[in-house]
Amino acid sequence: MAENASESGNILTSILSEIIESPLNIALVCLIAFLIYKIVKSRTHVPSASTPEPTLPKLKKRDFTVQELSKYDGTQEDGRVLIAVNGNVYDVTKGKRFYGPGGPYAAFGGKDASRGLATFSVSVKTEEYDDLSDLNSMEMESVREWEEQFKDKYELVGKLLRPGEEPTNYSDEEDESSAGTAASGAGDRPKED
Ligand code: HEM
């Protein structure tokens, strides 16, 4: 009996270690879980039982230092949640169930999530500006793919500022036609001299 239990425990451990060893396997597990979730969700016709996300006024376009960004982890009074990905800051308040306090990805709230997303980890510590320069090309590609998803789903607010970088003055860009031109990825950020 006990032998059986330890044998099945061993099998489980070896399957788990197989999965954890490769980022591709982790990504596939994530994808399968996501698809199962979507199927189950589409079959249950119960109207959303979860509390609706707060609808806050659109944030005025502005840039953030890492310290300024950290104030928007959803624990503050208005509950807004911002996340930086690839040098751009997104308002993810409508995804607060993911990134807000108690959410599975709460560690990304008010933070630059780029490194965590690239390495499939929610336990990356990003207290200071991270230039991501040590990420390999596959990881950087992953950061860009994640950013595309954020761009599609969430509102772009501005740029994440590197230390000493001056914020952009967006007051001239108030009209809608110029929206979205302010920040177009870390790759386009001007290099410091
Ligand atoms: C085996 C572990 C995991 C499972 C089962 C899982 C499951 C899911 C599911 C079901 C969704 C879609 C939710 C929805 O759209 O309603 C999702 C989205 C997401 N996952 Fe995971 N996940 C896992 C691991 C991770 C890891 C390690 C990361 C961190 C890099 C991550 C980052 C994300 C992000 C950023 C989203 C998008 C949320 C949004 O729409 O804003 N996941 N995950």
| CATH homologous superfamily (4th level) name of the largest domain | Cytochrome b5-like heme/steroid binding domain
Helix/strand-derived category reads mainly alpha
The unreliable regions are 178-184, 187-193
Q: How many angstroms does the end-to-end distance come to?
A: 69 Å
Beta strand count: 3
Output the strand order for the largest sheet: 1-2-3
* Largest sheet entry: 3 strands, antiparallel
Quaternary structure annotation: single chain
- Helical proportion? 25-40%
- Globally, the shape reads globular
Number of domains: 2
Q: C-alpha Rg, in Å? A: 20 Å
- Percent range for β-strand residues: 5-15%
CATH class of the largest domain: Alpha Beta
What is the typical, i.e. mean, pLDDT?
Answer: 83
**String of helices and strands:** HHHEEHHHE
Number of helices: 6
Bound molecules: protoporphyrin IX containing FE
The assigned CATH architecture of the largest domain is: Roll
Describe the structure.
It is a single chain. With 193 residues, this protein is mainly α. It has helices at 2-21, 23-43, 66-69, 96-99, 114-118, 137-153, and strands spanning 82-85, 88-91, 155-159. It starts with a helix and ends in a 34-residue tail after the last strand. The structure holds protoporphyrin IX containing FE.
What's the quick description here?
The chain is mostly helical and 193 residues long. Helices cover 37% and strands 7% of the residues. It is globular and about 65 Å long.
Which tags fit this structure?
6 helices, mainly alpha, three-stranded antiparallel sheet, 193 residues, binds protoporphyrin IX containing FE, single chain, 2 domains, Flavocytochrome B2, Chain A, domain 1, globular
